[in-house]
Amino acid sequence: MINNEEFQDEIGNNHISTNAQNPVRKDAFDITDEEKIEKIKKDVENILQTLGMDLTDDSLKGTPNRVAKMFVKEIFGGLNPDKKPKASTFENNYKYGEMLVEKNITLYSTCEHHLLPIIGRAHVAYISNGRVIGLSKMNRIVEHYAKRPQVQERLTMQIVQELQQALGTEDVACVIDAKHLCVNSRGIKDIESSTVTSEFGGKFKDPQTKREFLDYIKLETKF
Q1: Which residues make Cβ contacts (< 8 Å) with residue 195, sequence separation at least 6?
Q2: What HAMAP family is this protein classified in (predicted)?
Q3: Residue 182, marked binder
């Protein structure tokens, strides 16, 4: 019989998501970013000291503060709903009715199981239902949801759901192809493998439309 710790390790080592939403507590934003930085700074200091590192060394002196600021302000900044980009849309005055694809969006995220980087590309597409969105907003939506402890499947769905809501259409698709350093640099240590996830909404569920999108992004993976 698997005990609780073994079960949790099994989930983490196999990169299994247990929640379709980021598991954030209700009191997550009861304290300020500055207060979070101070608390995390002390935790990082404790980790490094426990590992036997000399924090009086000039190279390490500022590391706890740098890591704390990086966690709060940068790589996990997407947890803060106040930092969510405004997904402004505009009327499709030029009546463009074909697929719009923004491909090769650089993606940096963090695996929530081992807190190691996820690095890859996101490919996003939609078909206008009367509204259009600025190209840079698509990149910003990807960036916002990536800046969290994540699993790739959830991230893919969140990007699609956010664009569906902003554009008022189900006709949105996203494919992510990314390397997970928790696979590449530890565990199985397979440096060649990458993970591909997809979410297809509305017209993109049609095989012909789906194939057109995949042809645009030159992805050979079959779905």
Answers
A1: 120, 152, 176, 177, 178, 179, 180, 183
A2: FolE
A3: yes
Which burial class, exposed, middle or buried, applies to 172 when counting CB atoms under 10 A from its CB (0-12, 13-18, 19+)? buried
**Predicted pLDDT at 218:** 85
DSSP per residue over the chain, as a string?
A: ---HHHHHHHHHHTT----SS----TTTTSS-HHHHHHHHHHHHHHHHHHTT--TTSHHHHTHHHHHHHIIIIIITGGG-GGGPPP--EEE-TT---SEEEEEEEEEEEEETTT--EEEEEEEEEEE-SSEEE-HHHHHHHHHHHHSSEE-HHHHHHHHHHHHHHHHT-S-EEEEEEEEEHHHHSSTT--SS--EEEEEE-GGGGSHHHHHHHHHHHT-----
CB 77 within 8 A of CB 29: no
144 is in an annotated binding site: no
Residue written as tokens 């491909």? 103
> Which pTM was predicted?
0.89
Interacting residues of 121 by C-beta distance below 8 A, sequence separation 6+: 103, 104, 105, 106, 107, 176, 177, 178
- Point out the residues that are catalytic: 111-114, 152, 180, 182
Mean pLDDT of 137-158: 97
The answer on whether 114 is annotated among ligand-binding residues is: yes
Span 86-139, pLDDT tens digits: 988 999 998 898 999 999 999 999 999 999 999 999 999 999 999 999 999 999
